[in-house]
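Exercise 3.2. Students should predict the tertiary structure of the chain below and write it as structure tokens, then compare their answer with the key that follows.

Predict this chain's 3D structure.
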Amino acid sequence: MLRILKIELRKIVNYVPLWVLFAIYLLLFIPTAFTVESAADFLMSEYVSAMTQGQETDAGSVLFSYQYIWYVLSFLNLKFAVFLSLIIVTLVTNEFQFRTLRQNIIDGMSRLEVLLGKQLIMLLISLISGLFLFVFILVLGEQPKDSDPIPVFEGAVYVIYFMIGIFGFMNFAYLISSLFKNAGLSILGVIVYWIGEWIVGWFVPDQYERFLPANAIGGIIPGPTEELVTKSILPYPDALTIGIALGYIALFVALNYWVLLKGKLSK
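Answer key:
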């Protein structure tokens, strides 16, 4: 496994556009955080008032307390998974364009090892992103000013959900890239699918919308609920939501392997 990871890392270590995209993705965490603070102060004062039982307080500081910040920043930064999708599209389509995949097979790698290599890279990206978010929240978070201290890591599980979410979105991008084998078409395919699912979601009953792939994976960190606003109860995913997300990830991995077995190894 370590040998396969080294092979994959050797392909990307000097590929500057990939690292630029990844750096942009990580750096977006910073403006996201401070935009949340400004928007909270301007738009959410009445909601935060409900969350603090009517006590006079600053909306931004409430959302930056350890009670809420794990949820807020994990939820918002999962929305930027499109940048990670671009990274995977670039990696996969380059292998078809420059016949790297074909050469790896000729050199003795099995298709299962090829799949494993990409999964390891996506897992590594997920772990680095999760670690960055974890440290970022620890630095930025603060204890509530008008109540007793709370455990710092109380909501840290949201970072795990965040990593599962971006791992799932990257596997979806991997599948689209393997099917189209062209960067432009793959990016277009990902965007068209997301827009298409969003439109379909308008016509699907709420109880079934959670079963749509992108919605299922993104839904592993649920959106804000009325209970969050009125009772300060954070929305955790239930077992079914987690199961659906993991099921789609397993399906994407299986389909990626099937495409490797049946598809062409170059453009």
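Discussion points: The chain is about 75% helix and 0% strand. The longest helix spans residues 111-140.
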